[in-house]
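Example 9 (inverse folding). The structure is encoded as follows.
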């Protein structure tokens, strides 16, 4: 049932309101009696002939409406209809009230009433109106049938009334399979719930839906996605009644593909930009995580990066070693999902089965693509049956693994999964992922080599530092070394506690400029030299002078150093400084202060002279020696940091061995950009 207003007829039924085709044509009715006088004049007749009913009724039609030279023809046609009862139809020239001649289409027939009296009924319409309608109908029919745009007309119940040939081709169904049926019955390959909801809204409100984008596959092309621009608009009759809803469908597949290609290009550039940002640090785990983050969500819903343990150990893995063990180094997901728990935790070691797809990827050094994942494929993607079930529940439907290769060495692989993203991985994704992995592999390779060198430098550094502090007379001594937590700042800092003759103790903290193995090696040589000169019983200034000469022989190695000797019998401590950070005195009953020692020049400059300064050290007083890594930051000045160190030492009343954690947490929150050597001695 449509929403047109209804009027009740004489039989008690319902009839449509005015505004139909007859009104559009301007059809009128005129009745003549046997003498040819007008006895009925419909309201529409005034529009056709120009006379009102009062002006026309009772007059002879031939005199009123026909020119004199057409009079005989009109009388003859009237007599023929009245005599034979045969209908006559055709165009006849009439004269309007305003004197203008006009061709009018007539259909004339004889009527007989219940008294046997005969009348002539003329149904008339202006020929110009008829010609306009005929032309419009012909033009509309041709436009509908020949239009390259798919067109359809649905009634208010959303049943197809008309489907043009273009829409037949688009839908891959003949018009007969549409007529009388609803979209849900015909367009089963599309989201008809959304389509019919839009159509109902258009019928109810009358606001058109224009250029709605629809993507899908039809029986006409079941293997390829097509895109259409669809518009819906309500059709109303001349009287405002709703006739139904019209649909226009334009195939925009080429535009859709061009847009998709442009989007793919944008995504490619975005991914490559992310790839350029991979490797912000020289840490393998951080770099692997950056790679996983770069892949998600533009290329995959979940990505994991696994590195061969042999690659992390800087060994070129044999073909047998390429099956593991692996170390999970990066994991990223576009949204919270169960697949995260199905993956190996970052940092865990795993030996992957030979039948795993990631194992195949690493062993062959070639990408592995599974566009449509089956249940059988899940068994080769997941680590075990439980993980496979978890992946299945997430909706994993497409999988891609690409190797991480640098200088013809396979370091590991990144495997990617799609669950929420509807499109499967394709060959273009393989090319993009491989390029991304190739760039990232360089950063991972740099990080693993740097990390290997850093680990070597740290191992050398620790091996050259002293063990647990010796028992010395008159002092409680504690020491701490912490390598840098980031970058390459390892190697060069040292401390030493040397027992001397006469119960004296030498306290040394130094820092070779630079980092890495060379700095660690130079530190070891300087520490050895310091021990040798200390054993000779030289005062602090002479020890530093000899160390300066030794540093010159190390070829371009510069170092800073503070050297102190404590005498428990005299309760004095002598200091000499070679360009090092100032020592801190923490009196038992007073505020901490920096010792005003002559700074001296760093070791390795050559020809430097140093001075010895002596202070008294009472029971409970502490001496704090340290390298610049303890206090330096990129954001605050050195004076501010020294003030903070003094404040921390003033507030700290804990035992000496816990002071290290306290200071490191307060000054660096456990993360230093340089290595740190720290030595604290308390007199008793």
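The amino acid assigned to each position is listed next.
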């Amino acid at each position: 049932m449509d929403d047109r207003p209804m009027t009740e007829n004489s039989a008690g039924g319902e009839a449509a309101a005015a505004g139909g085709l007859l009104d559009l044509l301007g059809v009128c009715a005129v009745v003549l009696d046997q003498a040819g006088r007008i006895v009925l004049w419909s309201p529409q007749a005034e529009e056709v002939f120009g006379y009102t009913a009062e002006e026309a009724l009772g007059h002879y039609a031939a005199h009123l409406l026909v020119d004199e030279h057409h009079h005989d023809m009109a009388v003859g046609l009237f007599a023929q209809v009245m005599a034979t009862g045969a209908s006559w139809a055709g165009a006849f020239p009439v004269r309007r009230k305003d004197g203008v001649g006009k061709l009018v289409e007539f259909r004339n027939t004889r009527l007989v009433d219940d008294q046997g009296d005969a009348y002539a009924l003329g149904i008339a319409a202006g020929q110009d109106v008829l010609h306009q309608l005929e032309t419009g109908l012909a033009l509309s029919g041709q436009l509908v049938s020949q239009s390259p745009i798919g067109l359809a007309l649905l009634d208010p119940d959303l049943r197809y009334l008309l489907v043009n040939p273009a829409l037949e081709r688009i839908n891959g169904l003949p018009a007969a399979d549409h007529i009388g049926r609803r979209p849900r019955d015909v367009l089963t390959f599309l989201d008809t719930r959304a389509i019919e909801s839009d159509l109902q809204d258009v019928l109810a409100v009358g606001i058109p839906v224009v250029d709605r984008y629809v993507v899908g596959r039809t029986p006409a092309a079941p293997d390829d996605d097509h895109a259409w621009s669809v518009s819906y608009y309500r059709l109303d009759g001349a009287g405002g009644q709703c006739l139904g809803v019209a649909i226009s469908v334009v195939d925009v597949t080429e535009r859709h593909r061009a847009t998709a290609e442009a989007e793919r290009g944008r995504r490619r550039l975005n991914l490559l930009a992310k790839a350029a940002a991979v490797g912000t640090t020289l840490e393998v785990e951080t770099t692997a995580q950056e790679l996983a983050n770069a892949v998600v969500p533009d290329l995959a819903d979940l990505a994991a990066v696994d590195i061969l343990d042999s690659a992390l150990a800087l060994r070129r893995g044999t073909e047998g070693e390429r099956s593991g063990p692996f170390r999970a180094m990066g994991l990223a997901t576009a949204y919270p999902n169960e697949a995260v728990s199905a993956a190996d935790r970052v940092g865990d070691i795993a030996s992957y089965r030979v039948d795993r797809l990631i194992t195949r990827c690493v062993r062959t050094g070639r990408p592995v693509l599974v566009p449509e994942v089956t249940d059988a494929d899940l068994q080769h993607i997941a680590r075990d049956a439980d993980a496979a079930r978890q992946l299945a529940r997430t909706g994993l439907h497409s999988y891609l693994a690409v190797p991480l290769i640098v200088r013809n060495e396979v370091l590991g692989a990144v495997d990617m999964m799609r669950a929420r993203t509807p499109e499967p991985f394709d060959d273009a994704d393989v090319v993009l992922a491989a390029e991304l992995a190739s760039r990232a592999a360089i950063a991972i390779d740099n990080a693993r080599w740097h990390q290997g060198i850093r680990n070597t430098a740290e191992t050398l550094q620790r091996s050259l530092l002293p063990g647990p502090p010796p028992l010395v007379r008159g002092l409680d001594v504690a020491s701490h070394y912490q390598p840098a937590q980031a970058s390459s700042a390892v190697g060069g800092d040292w401390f030493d506690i040397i027992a001397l003759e006469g119960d004296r103790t030498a306290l040394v903290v130094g820092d070779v400029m630079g980092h890495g193995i060379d700095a660690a090696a130079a530190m070891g040589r300087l520490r050895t030299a310091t021990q040798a000169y200390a054993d000779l019983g030289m005062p602090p200034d002479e020890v530093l002078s000899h160390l300066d000469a030794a540093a010159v022989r190390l070829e371009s190695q510069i170092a800073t150093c503070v050297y102190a000797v404590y005498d428990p019998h005299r309760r004095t401590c002598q200091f000499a400084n070679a360009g090092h950070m100032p020592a801190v005195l923490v009196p038992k009953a007073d505020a901490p202060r920096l010792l005003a020692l002559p700074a001296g020049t760093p070791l390795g400059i050559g020809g430097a002279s140093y001075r010895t300064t002596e202070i008294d050290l009472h029971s409970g007083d502490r001496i704090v020696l340290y390298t610049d890594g303890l206090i330096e930051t990129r954001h605050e000045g050195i004076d501010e940091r020294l003030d903070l160190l003094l404040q921390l030492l003033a507030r700290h009343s804990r035992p000496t061995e816990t002071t290290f954690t306290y200071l490191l947490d307060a000054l660096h929150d456990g993360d230093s950009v340089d290595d740190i050597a720290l030595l604290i001695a308390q007199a008793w």
